[in-house]
Amino acid sequence: MKRRLSDANDIPSPSTSRPRHHDRPDNAGDDDKQLQLALDLSRRDAQLERMSEQDQIQEAIRQSMLHQEAAAPPPIPAAPNTTSPRPPKAATPLSPEAKLQPIAASRPIASSTKIAPLFASPAKAKPRLGDHGDDGDSRSSAATADAIDWDHTLLFSQEPGRTINRLDGSLDLEYWPGWLLSHPDPDRGRKVLMRWMLNSIQWHRVTYTRPGGFTVRTPRYTTTFGRDETGAPDSAYDKPPKPFPAPLLKIKLQVERLTGASFNSVIVNFYADGNDSISYHSDDEAFLGPNPTIASLTLGSSRDFYMRRKAPAGVDVAPPTKPSGSKGSGPAATRPTEKMVLNDGDLLVMRGKTQAEWEHSVPKRAGNVGGRINLTFRRCVSKRGTDNFLRYNRGGVGDTWRWNGTKMVPGKGGV
Ligand SMILES: O=C(O)CCC(=O)C(=O)O
Ligand SMILES: [Fe+2]
Question: Which residues are substrate-binding (predicted)?
Answer without folding.
Answer: 284
